[in-house]
Request: fold
Amino acid sequence: MQRLAVPILLFMSLLLVPRLGRAQQPDTVLALEGFLQEDDQTSAWTLVVPLSVLAFHIRTFTFALTGHPERWRDLRNLYVTTKGRVSRVGDPDAPHLSLAPDDMREATPPGTVDHSFDRGVGMRSRATLSVVPDEFAWQDAKDRGTGVNPLVLYTMLNERSGAIEIIRPTDLNFCVRVSNRDHVVTWDTTFLLEHTDARRFETQAGAFREGVQLPRFAARQPGHYTVQAGVCEDEEFNLTAEFDVQ
Reply:
């Protein structure tokens, strides 16, 4: 199991319009969804998409963003939807795709489940669970690897002004379990949530996020699967989402 800290990750291949990655028509304007990231060393911005996109004879998971980053800085590390002009740039022998966004806003990944919790004055929060993407194939029609890298993403959003109290400053465990259509467990993992830190507890932003890479052997065969994830010691905060392998 490879655990991935969120904000995100070495991701996946791309989403959107249409739902599965397909060769694009000769139109440079695309609507995309994915994770917005900034490189801490170079300050370069990219959009990492869950299912691969083909444009200008280039298939990619990552678009280099151009423009004015202050417009979308508040969306860093979030799942977003955007529309803009795509261009083929770089060395002719090693080209890549860039995206000049016209607009960008936070979005909810397809298939996300959520639940609200209210424990009185001390805590009110909303948890979400997603498998991104929630429909994918490990191999294409020619038995070539698609490069998809699914992520199980669990988020707790604080809806009060104080710090999130659900994950206390003690060592607890985070559990992820995948089951097939016949309710047979195909994969599970548990790891320690270490003492709270700035990544897990952002009092002002009010968000806790945990991301776990879904390995291929967790859902090796085509079919319908469910994933349950949450804090092992408190089942109330566990959520169940669904995904399909083609």
